[in-house]
Amino acid sequence: MKVVIVGCTHAGTAAAKQILASSPNTEVTVYERHQDISFLSCGISLYLSGKVKSLEEMFYATPEDLEQLGAKVRTNCDVYAIDTKHKTLRVEELQTGIKYQDTYDKLVMATGSVPVVPPIEGVSLPGILMCKDYEDAKQIYQTAKSAKRIAIIGGGYVGVELVEAYSRTGHDVMLINGLHRPLSHYVDVPFAKEVEADMKQHGVQLYLNEVAHTFDSDDQHIYIKTNKAEREADLAVVCVGFRPQTDLLEGQVELTKDGAIHVNDYMQTSDPDIFAAGDSVAVHFNPTQTDAYTPLATNAVRQGALVGRNIFKPTLKYLGTQATSALHLYGKTVASTGLTLERAQKHGFTAAAVDLTDNYRPEFMESTTPVEMRLVYDQNDHRILGGQLVSKYDIAQSANLLSVCIQNKNTIEDLAFVDMLFSPYDDRPFNYLNLLGQAAMQQEEAR
């Protein structure tokens, strides 16, 4: 069997490793546009802030690693056409311009995503950059050395992380964000306001509910015209989201309305000989039981590994996702999973939220730290739909526990009384998540 993998970041790397582990006699060929593979773009802000000293540390595998396992890795190669009927693909070597045809028995599409380029006049001018890959990170880092004032366009995870990184490195930072609050996909208004307050406290200028209309520049400055004013900066980084890179298969396999590849439980597309994983793929979003586009490295790694296990025989089903994620912002961890209250209501749930702030362990200990929490649940059946946590205490694993609760369709009552350990060093007799579930029960009993 000959397997061709197109794209080799998280999903492609995981798929290649698993295929060769499960079926070591398989002929595996990997095509990747870039010189390197497996770049952790989520670490770009760590590099820009100085917390990680070398950008090269963000690669967790090399072409040589896969070749030692038995794969043929072709970097700097662009797959520019695929004919699924004849199982062929057209390849161009980017350094030489040589073009040739290859064939496959099974195809793995791991082409990932590309930044959304908003339809803004002047967005391609020098000094206006995107933030996605290794080359983007190098360009942003070099440009920022001579820039004092930096504008970040977009208040998602990438934008907020860049804001924090640059506000800690002596830059004047502004955040221009459109119609929604920062991190609106992940947290509700109360937590978004807290993130905004932390940014303001660190000198960030917030221009919220502003939409960038045009860019202009001269030799020294960038000029950003919004619906409210003209903003001036030395460097602008646009990070308003990502879209799936699926042009090669358009019209040949089933795509969702977002343009992502639809796959079944075994990561198989509508073409039985084509599998797909990562940012090019629609995930099964468990809170709504629907397809959704949620480009996260965690999804990509899991899906890639599942492709490797299922490509020759349906073996292990995809469990879906809750889109669980976290970021560290000015000494706090902000973590979320599942649906926000606003999104739950938009999806038609009779949803409610309960808020609770409590110290993570008893006050008689030498120190303790408050944890701010929100639980989103369905008032009809009390099923947990989402959770949000903010604290200077590391609460990332608590978001993971809530993720499992959502996946297993647990209720607020389950969370209120599920068995958790007690040690004064670690928590109270009732863990703070138990108390959050009990708060939701009390809220419902009072209705």
What is the CA-based Rg, rounded?
23 Å
Largest sheet: 5 strands, parallel
Uncertain runs with pLDDT below 50, 5 residues or more?
Answer: none
Report the end-to-end length measured between terminal Cα atoms: 61 Å
Write down the overall geometry.
globular
| Count of discrete alpha- or pi-helical segments spanning 4 or more residues | 11
How do the strands of the widest beta sheet line up side by side? Answer: 3-2-1-7-18
Q: For the residues shown, what is the average pLDDT?
A: 95
What does the model show?
By secondary structure, the chain is an alpha/beta fold. Helices cover 25% and strands 28% of the residues. It is built from eleven helices and 25 strands. The protein has helices at residues 10-22, 44-48, 63-69, 134-145, 157-167, 189-201, 297-310, 341-346, 396-407, 412-417, 432-445, and strands spanning 2-6, 27-31, 72-74, 77-83, 88-93, 99-103, 106-109, 113-115, 128-130, 149-153, 172-176, 205-207, 212-217, 222-226, 230-233, 235-238, 242-244, 274-276, 283-285, 290-292, 325-329, 332-338, 351-359, 370-378, 384-391. The strands form seven sheets. A five-stranded parallel beta sheet has the order 3-2-1-7-18. Strands 9-16-10-11-12 form a five-stranded parallel beta sheet, covered by helices on one side. Helix 1 runs parallel beside helix 7 (297-310). The longest helix has 14 residues, at 297-310. The termini are far apart. The model has no long low-confidence stretch (mean pLDDT 95).
